[in-house]
């Protein structure tokens, strides 16, 4: 349920100017019932000036009358078209003082590992300015020599879901701005998985994969083992007998 602005001052005004119950005022202003009772007793919000919700377009007199007639009626904040969206955060993200010194390191990490992110996206993620991001991109930052890239999620400067959403949006924008030739160079997942994993042999040495030191003539060689006489070239017995006859 939406709460009125200056809730405690509004509660002071309602206590002083209406007969609404403490519970009704507490529910409308987002306070505890005992706190409203303390306001009525003068123990709480001493010196706080009442803030008129009717004059400031937060309640109608008719709504207050309904609440006074029915103690169970819950007051409804008046619709204010000018206040729509005021609850959303505006401007750069607030960074605690203890983490501001680490912000340049997170910017360096984003620039290095996610170059597709725009300066506006980085500024929104870590709460910085575009001139600071530009100086880190161009490495002209005064402390660039001492900076180390650190994940902004690890530093608590943004959530992982916010970083993932920014990266996905940047990827879609980048793909939308690509030319047809650049898209043709990109391989789909199915095409990359279907590619050969083994290296191809260059054409200049094609056929050498079957080359071996032993030729095809090995199959034609005779596998019979030669006898001892062929090794030592021993003379035949007939030649010995002829020598004895001549003596």
UniProtKB/TrEMBL annotation:
<feature type="compositionally biased region" description="Acidic residues">
    <location>
        <begin position="215"/>
        <end position="226"/>
    </location>
</feature>
<feature type="region of interest" description="Disordered">
    <location>
        <begin position="196"/>
        <end position="247"/>
    </location>
</feature>
<dbReference type="Pfam" id="PF06242">
    <property type="entry name" value="TrcR"/>
</dbReference>
<feature type="compositionally biased region" description="Acidic residues">
    <location>
        <begin position="236"/>
        <end position="247"/>
    </location>
</feature>
<protein>
    <submittedName>
        <fullName>Putative cytoplasmic protein</fullName>
    </submittedName>
</protein>
<dbReference type="InterPro" id="IPR010421">
    <property type="entry name" value="TrcR"/>
</dbReference>
